[in-house]
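Reopening this ticket.

The earlier resolution said the output was attached, but the attachment link was broken on my side. Pasting everything inline this time so it's all in one place.
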Amino acid sequence: MRLATLRLIAATRKPRNRLGKKLVLKPGQASIHHDLATVTRDLSGFALSGEDKLQMLMDVNENNKALKTVSSEISAIVEQSLTNQVKLVRNTVIPAVDAYTEAVVEAVDGWARRSDEESFTVNRVEVYPILLKNPELFDLERYLQDSKHSLGKPTYINDLPVHSAYETLPTMLQTENSSLLVWLAGIGKATFDSYAKNIFLGRRLPSSLERKEHYVSSKINKAMVGVLLAKAYLANIPSSVESSLQEYNSSLKYIRNGYGSVLAANVKIVNGYVTSNRLISTEDKINRTVYVVGPVYDAWMSNEGSIEALFGKMLSEDKFSAVNKINSKIMQYTALWTKHNSLVLSRKAKDKISAIKRTMLTVLELNKEGYTDLEKEYMITLDSDFKRRAIQMGKKVINELTDLETHNIRIACMKVLCLSRFSFTGAYEFLTSMEAAKEANPDASPSVLATIALTNQAEQFIKDCIVEVN
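Inline output:
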């Protein structure tokens, strides 16, 4: 074997054999600095075909100076190749794979969030805050009656200082009611101010439709802000107000009575639900949402109830909402949901695989990060049609990914990018060797995993060189 030939192989072979640093092999493996005779004996199945050649190599004197020179030259060639490969993978391929993976994961996560919008949800119709039971602050029956006699629409008061109302409300109402203070602390200034501005400055009054809704707690809080602030401003006219007294009183009473009637009607409704042990307030099958009566739901769930049965009830055509009626068919509802959910999960799994593959191809084609200097150099010197060919190769790899491979997006992205844009580097063999080593040695450090990968690459490099020379 001539050294000039071996050097030429190392210099002109595909960059996939340009590996990295000085090799430390696993215990029991041949050192890369071992003499050529020993290496050749180990790899005779790859390099030699005749008994005479094999015997000749095995009979070589290990102290032969020429042999030592050959061994030294091979060691230098392999070491340089390994060094180049490590630099290439570390500085170019891995950053590109990371950027590609990040873009794919972000897009797939967006798809997953949109897919989750199809899920069923439960909203609670709550028992209202104890504050509503305080007649000093809420005269709900009066508001309900007065709202029936309200005529026309009010002239809006645009100069109310609602931005400071959160802090001044207890003073304006002349009360130190502990329930009020607890309620204010619970909703917080940001939410309170948002409701106040929406009602008093945004000219937002409850419509007839809103008055019939079964409010969840957030909407009840908004109505309470409307009532309490209107009541406070009726008792304390701010100096900034320029409207006439009649317009001022008319406007604030309209707001107080409007939102007060909403509270009165809904308190009555929810109290009736609790008394009759009604579990479901309403079902919105279009948006896959069920509104449950808070205290009834809690008691039901602590006994025989389950989310599966509740969603199964929504899938049925049954119209009843009471606990006893639902419990009479609870097994049927649970089975109905289990079957439905199994089909949905199966469909979503298939849809996700398709979404992952579509996303991988789209991100590969867009290539927002741009091509690396290594790829640009390759285009100029060796392949002017590199971009089109890389996309074609990437599409082929993506189409051939198994369902199991798509479960690990990072590994799938590594495979696609290494076998398309970096197909000429041999990075895929190096990185998959590290992944295999990691799987076999989960506690091993990155440096140990890299050593194992380098060992495999060095062995393959020598085998390839010997086969080509032979």
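Reporter confirms the inline version is readable. DSSP finds 21 helices and three strands in the chain. Residues 65-116 form the longest helix (52 residues).
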